[in-house]
Amino acid sequence: MIKLTFKILFLIFIFCALVKNVYPIDIYPTHVDFLKFGIGARPSAMGEASVSLHSDVTAAYSNPAGLAKIKRVQCGAMYSEAVKDAFLNFFGLAVPVKGWGTYGVSGVLLLIDPIPATDDSGKTLGNVKWSDWAVTLSYGKEVIRNLSLGLGFRVVQRKESDPIFGTSKGTAYSGDFGFIYEFPFKKGLNLGFSALNIGSKLQMEGEIKKDDLPRTMKLGLSYNRDSWVIATDINKVLDDQWRIHIGGEHKFKDNIFIRFGYYEKAGNVKGATYGIGIKLKNYQFDWANVPSGEMIGYSRDNKISIIIHF
After folding, report:
1. CB 267 within 8 A of CB 274
2. Which residue blocks in 171-305 are alpha helix, DSSP H?
3. Cβ atoms of residues 235 and 206 within 8 Å
4. Rounded to an integer, what distance in angstroms lies between the CA atom of residue 135 and that of residue 92?
5. What is the reported pLDDT for 27?
6. Rounded to whole angstroms, how far apart are CA atoms 149 and 59?
């Protein structure tokens, strides 16, 4: 079994490396960067290599098709200090309806600590406040045997409050699409693809400039065998080159999970990822430690998730 697992992992890696070199895509600048952060401690601990995994409520932000095989209602939340002096929070609900697929609603909120604003004399004028949020409606269903499709619709808003210039906000709308295909000739071998944040640009009130959302493509393979999961993704964000993500998970006695991975992102963010998960009856607790890079104030970031099954 171990030899077969390593053979599958090698083939997955070669597949993603070939895609990276054969299909280069131009790089364009984007903003609204909080949409680039990995959501969920489990996929984050696995190097964010999750596009081909049938997952949990957090799948709405990597591949909505991953919602398709959820069997029970799930409610989930995540906390992360993704950026210095800021907090990234996720909350979500996934509701499976027999014969109709799984419906999800979720939100991501980035709150930045207030920044004091002063005049030339050093007098405090007030605080600059800045927040980003996104609300997503998602749907996933196994449309035919071995093929699951997913769709998502997202509203994104940025709000800035300045004691001098007042309050301004901007809104954008985007959609997601994805699929997961389970190869019939090899049980546990999946192919996944998703296109995320495809939609309008974000324009702040009173400004001419319009900011692109971080449109993202993900393509990957995974192999689930007994107590092991191994996965590799190849990801392309509009303002970055192709990046390879690798991850794995080992299960002990159905309720303890050890996870590991590696990724490299723009801004010199790269390194090993790792984490653990524990299931206690209807509760799932996950923790991940991932690279975050010097440019945003930390070298590592801790993510904590909880998912409740009803």
Report:
1. no
2. none
3. no
4. 9
5. 44
6. 12
